[in-house]
Write a structure and sequence with these properties.
The chain is mainly β and 692 residues long. Among the domains are: 104 residues, Immunoglobulin-like (Sandwich); 280 residues, YVTN repeat-like/Quinoprotein amine dehydrogenase (Methylamine Dehydrogenase, Chain H), CATH 2.130.10.10. It is built from 2 helices and 63 strands. The two termini are 29 Å apart. 52% of the residues are buried.
Length: 692
């Protein structure tokens, strides 16, 4: 009978809502899951150290991840090491941080550490070793409370990796080969006879065998580093960044070529990357029969000895810089900073790399039917199959830094650091069209009928009425000439600037007027999107604003948008996608976002709203946001699955506006909880998960 009552309670709580929920941005599954530099295992806990996102924990073999960054001052984590509940993180430029509670909180542990650029960590019994970028190895015998330099005999002090085999401690250096210590780092001796490349990026021990990954392949030593032999037959990439061992299987993670497997102590290697979409393997880890790969696109898992892989990025926020977005057919394409194009065919739920060509930064995207165009820091690329494959095409393109692209009928225009170029054959050849263009750094382009507009760096806006054959300056009223983006809606032309906000021209770029009512001061506007009478603007730091009246008034629409550095938009079906600087891609339903702000010209919320907590699942803290269109009495309570109150977060009169509060669940067990907002007559309840 109790089970039935509990089920009824779940249904009631999930559906309780008097007023409709307002617009809500949701982070998509990518692109990528961020760069994963390191793993550490502690019992059932798997930790991942990321490039710009700090440390994440999974307690279910990567099925879901939770941010564990309380007290971690630097989010670029290059290395991790675990010993029981003690966890150590090497944060680039900030030294070592120590956690005694499985990452729930961190404290700086740098006393005696003369350099804070930490490349590697290792735990040997009660000893913790840190390899640094220029000062060799440091030893702590008190869990990081203090450190002592231990580099006697270490003639190269750039220590990229550390490995332990019985009482032997090995240090791999950049340019100096391998060093061996048999006395806990008190002294070191060179151990690199036969090692033809001394740039050591990775080390691993497999029984009596020691493998070294270098810039020029893999080397094996069977006598503790006294003699090395090259063992990389079948390895198609010589740059080996990581290793892992399962029984007699040795796995090597390479740069740009994925994972390789050897079952005969390195005599031969075979590719083992089926299912991995990001082929630079920065870290590998083993938990039983589970093999994890940390890549530039998040975490991948193999449960069959590397025969196949699947992504495991739920809760691991993407941290890719998405500079450009394009919706074409059923595909959503994103251009990123880490090199290349990624594609989603399911509204951002999953992404795959499609980089047979544009492996540089992708600054601009445009499309025409099945043809997709990419402007990159390495020139122009063309795809004739909706982004599945690409071909470079720079004939006649005098500058290969393509900042902007736009199509106009059968014409394709490219804005570069040396002006505008025109192609009449879908980018297969180019002609310079710069007559009258006195500023040639063209950040953005827009076309409307016979009009073509170019926004420049510090030169304002130029207009052409003859497909770029000649240009005239049109800056009257434009007080900020650093132009980031342009959009055309009927006879209206909009310009987003660096610090001046948004400008409108109703005479095709001859005169401009400022449109900043409701717009945050000094908003750097980077992108526009037009949907009917609705105009969206994305800013670098203030998120998304929406206008229903051609820019006369603006309203912020940022609920759920955890990264407000918006660089790109794409409209696809009923959704608006936003690409961010460091937070991947977000999605919001147009019906929600437009209804929320219809006929609303102030900055106050339009409806009562309770939004999904973030992160979720979480450990130990999460943030809850809610909106109030008027001042009222507010209570916000946390209950468990039995309806018992476990916390009262708010119980007072609150002013109208957007509000948020953080709940620290450090003292409650894992499980499902509910948070209930009552504001006047408005009542809404949502579910959250505490995951240890």
């Amino acid at each position: 009978m109790k089970i039935i009552l509990h089920c009824l309670l779940f249904v009631f709580l999930e559906s309780t809502s008097i007023n409709p929920l307002g617009a809500q941005w949701v982070q998509t599954g990518g692109p990528g899951g961020g760069t994963v530099n390191a793993f550490a295992l502690s019992g059932a806990n798997l930790f991942a150290g990321t490039e710009r996102g700090g440390v994440y924990l999974s307690t279910n073999n990567g099925a879901s991840w939770t941010s564990m960054n309380a007290g971690l001052e630097n989010m670029t984590v290059r290395c991790l090491a675990a010993s029981g509940k003690d966890l150590f993180a090497g944060a680039w430029g900030s030294g070592v941080f120590h956690s005694t509670n499985n990452g729930a909180s961190w404290t700086e542990a740098n006393s005696g550490l003369s350099i804070k650029d930490v490349r590697s960590l290792a735990v040997v019994g009660a000893n913790v070793f840190a390899g640094t970028d220029g000062e060799g190895v440091f030893l702590s015998t008190n869990n990081g409370a203090s450190w002592t330099s231990v580099k006697a005999g270490l003639t190269n002090t750039f220590v990229q990796c550390l490995a332990v085999n019985d009482s032997n401690l090995f240090a791999g250096t950049l340019g100096g080969g391998v060093y061996l210590s048999t006395n806990n780092g008190t002294s070191w001796t060179e151990a690199d006879s036969g090692l033809s490349n001394k740039n050591i990026w990775s080390l691993v021990c497999s029984g009596p065998n020691l493998f070294a990954g270098t810039l020029d392949g893999i080397f094996l030593s069977t006598d503790h580093g006294k003699v090395w032999t090259e063992v990389d037959s079948g390895l198609t990439s010589p740059f080996v960044l990581s290793f892992a061992v399962i029984g007699t299987s040795v796995f090597a993670g390479t740069r740009d070529a994925g994972v390789f497997l050897s079952s005969n102590n390195g005599v031969s290697w075979s590719a083992a990357s089926v299912g991995i979409t990001e082929m630079t393997i920065r870290s590998l880890a083993v938990n039983g029969t589970n093999l994890f790969a940390g890549t530039d696109g998040g975490v991948f898992l193999s449960t069959n000895n590397g025969a196949s892989w699947r992504p495991m990025n739920s809760g691991l926020p993407p941290i890719t810089f998405v500079e450009s977005l394009l919706a074409t057919g059923t595909n959503l394409i994103a251009g990123s900073d880490i090199g290349g194009v990624v594609l989603s065919a399911d509204d951002g739920a999953s992404w795959s790399s499609v980089n047979s060509g544009p492996s540089a930064e992708v600054w601009s995207l445009a499309g025409s039917g099945m043809d997709v165009f990419a402007g990159t820091s390495a020139g122009f690329f063309l795809s004739t199959n909706s982004g599945a494959s690409w071909t470079g095409s720079n004939s006649g393109l005098l500058n290969t830094y393509v900042l902007s692209l736009v199509t106009s009928g059968s014409y394709l225009f490219a804005g570069t650091e040396q002006g505008v170029f025109l192609s009449t054959n879908n980018g297969r050849s180019w002609t310079s069209v710069n007559a009258g263009l006195t500023n040639t750094v063209v950040r953005c382009l827009a076309a409307s009928g016979t009009y073509l507009f170019a926004g420049t760096y510090d030169g304002g806006i130029f207009r052409s009425t003859n497909n770029g054959a000649s240009w005239t300056e049109g800056n009257s009223g434009l007080t900020d000439k650093n132009v980031w983006c342009l959009a055309v809606n009927g006879t209206n032309v909009f310009a987003g600037t660096d610090e001046g906000g948004i400008f409108l021209s109703t005479d095709y770029g001859t005169n401009w007027k400022l449109l900043n009512s409701g717009l945050p001061n000094y908003a750097s506007v980077r992108c526009f999107a037009v949907s009917g009478t609705n105009l969206f603007a994305g800013s670098d730091g203030e998120g998304v604003v929406l206008s229903h009246d051609n820019g006369a008034h603006w309203s912020a629409v940022n609920s759920g948008l955890m990264n407000t550095r918006v660089r790109s938009f794409a409209l696809s079906g009923m959704s608006l996608f936003a690409g961010t600087f460091g937070g991947g891609v977000y999605r919001c339903l147009l019906s929600e976002i437009v209804t929320l702000t219809q006929d609303h010209s102030s900055d106050l919320p339009y409806h009562f709203g309770l939004f999904q907590n973030y992160p979720n699942p979480f450990n130990p803290s999460t943030t809850i946001s809610y909106s109030l269109p008027k001042t009222t009495n507010v209570s916000l309570r946390i209950t468990n699955a039995l309806g018992q109150e476990v916390a009262l977060l708010v119980n007072e009169r609150k002013e109208s506006g957007q509000h948020q509060i953080t709940w620290n669940a450090i003292n409650v067990p894992s499980g499902i909880y509910f948070y209930r907002l009552q504001a006047g007559e408005f009542v809404e309840t949502k579910k959250m998960i505490v995951l240890r």
